[in-house]
Design brief:
The protein is of the alpha/beta class. Helix content is 35%, strand content 19%.
Length: 455
């Protein structure tokens, strides 16, 4: 017998409307469903606040679906039918994201609820499937980001990606240290020197178009102790998710492949551990990137930009339509944005506008920061070498990091840098995400790519 479904409506208590995001559970209303969760959706067509840069209607549906599922799950109901709420994709996203939690290494796992669509039609069934795929892809990114670092080394990460993505038609190439040395990726390799775990460099290809590829680059530091510039001990365990950029771009190509999007996408993931040891790069050391630029590494904890530098250089060989990199890059971004949005730097107004619209649709917003020469001077005005991996001025750490990366992007290439340190987690600020690493902004990346082939 079916157990439950969720729908919007009145609370049944003196006829008042259920408040937005709130739910009530009723039992024994009919023979088919032994329980019904009624949830509040808020206003049917809420006015769009241009300052919020979000589709509040879609976000309210996600929150409502999550509230209903959570209420039922807490009552030990594990088979849930969810109404479309007139937007089956958003309904599925809220339901699937809220019903998942990281428990990979518990000996006794909680049973996660099975979610399906209530009263499917051809149209809302297709949209519910889309939302399910996008949510599953974000959950894949969440799983990667929350996995302990000893169980997700660069080698294990590469194997996991092969296992999950190859059956979806994604070509997975795993390059080793010797290949990186032949490519003269001195900046990338300098970060790996302190760890016994060998570096890996992944090149993922999903090809469902003959066009030149879109290229995404994801920072893959599977654990970041800071190297010789050692991080404080407090919350250092969170640095298992310093590969959140790699996780989100892996999630994005996972979703796009399952959706059979008509695109040609390349994903590049440099993978390392950043550890202190006798062989580790020392503050003040100078290394040479793939494009020949010399870099003084004044802070070994500013390592993400070092591995991204060589990956961005390599991306030019692929003749991309555009390049974006995604990275948990700077604590300064957390100071600037809290966990409200991903920080973005771009040399293309048009490309950023597409991303901003995508974030408004998914509820996972972005906010733009400057790429001024003012910041470039702070990392390039040096007498003895081309670049420093940290800026000279006070503050603006996210801006100088972006300016550093810009030095490795080929001229006339449309490029965006997404600093996701602010949205990495672990937190519980999004109503439809349980506490832990968030997998953000996976759905925004999928929407961003898809929106460019709808035009």
């Amino acid at each position: 017998m079916k157990q439950v479904f969720i729908l919007p409506g009145n609370s049944g208590k003196t006829g008042e409307t259920v408040k937005e995001g709130k739910s009530f559970v009723f039992w024994g209303l009919d023979d088919e469903y032994r329980a019904v969760s009624v949830v509040g959706l808020g206003k049917k067509n809420p006015p769009q606040n241009e300052l919020e840069i979000i589709s509040e209607e879609k976000e309210n549906i996600r929150k409502a679906a999550a509230a209903g599922c959570n209420a039922l799950n807490s009552n030990d109901i594990k088979h849930i039918d969810v109404e479309s709420f007139a937007d089956a994709e958003s309904s599925a996203e809220g339901a699937i994201l809220s019903s998942w939690k990281f428990q990979e290494f518990k000996t006794k796992k909680d049973q996660l609820p099975q979610i399906q669509l209530y009263q499917p039609t051809d149209e809302n069934s297709a949209n519910f499937t889309r939302g399910t795929i996008k949510a599953d892809s974000q959950n894949f990114a969440r799983m990667l980001a929350d996995t302990p670092a000893n169980l997700l080394t660069p080698t294990i990460f590469a194997s996991k990606i092969q296992e999950v993505l190859t059956p979806l038609g994604v070509d997975v190439k795993v390059y080793d240290q010797q290949w990186a040395e032949e490519q003269k990726m001195g900046s990338f390799l300098s970060v790996a020197r302190g760890s016994v775990e060998p570096p890996k460099f992944l090149e993922l290809t999903y090809k469902n178009s003959d066009d030149n590829p879109f290229v995404m680059v994801g920072k893959g530091v599977t654990f970041d102790a800071g190297g010789i510039s050692l991080k404080p001990a407090a919350n250092m365990d969170h640095m298992r998710a310093d590969m959140g950029g790699a996780a989100s771009v892996a999630g994005a190509i996972h979703g796009l492949a399952k959706l059979r999007a008509p695109v040609h996408l390349k994903v590049l993931i440099p993978l390392v551990e950043n550890m202190p040891s006798g062989s580790a790069t020392k503050p003040g050391d100078v290394v040479v990137a793939r494009n020949g630029k010399t870099i003084c590494v004044d802070n070994t904890d500013a390592e993400g930009r070092l591995i991204l530098a060589d990956a961005l250089c390599y991306s030019a060989d692929l003749k991309p339509k555009w390049v974006i990199d995604v990275a948990t890059l700077t604590g300064a971004m957390v100071v600037a944005l809290g966990n409200g949005a991903t920080g973005v730097f771009s040399n293309s107004n048009a490309l950023y506008d597409v991303l901003e619209s995508a974030g408004a649709e998914t509820g996972d917003r972005v906010w733009r920061f400057p790429l001024w020469k003012h910041y470039s001077k702070q990392i390039s005005d040096n007498a003895a070498y081309d670049l420093n991996n940290i800026g000279k001025g006070k503050g603006g750490g996210s801006c100088t990091a972006a300016a550093f990366l810009r030095e490795f992007v080929t001229e006339n290439t449309d490029w965006m840098h997404l600093d996701i340190a602010s949205v990495m987690g672990p937190d519980h600020s999004v109503p439809y995400l349980s506490k832990g690493m968030t997998g953000r902004p996976t759905r925004t990346l999928i929407e961003f790519v898809e929106s460019q082939v709808r035009c």
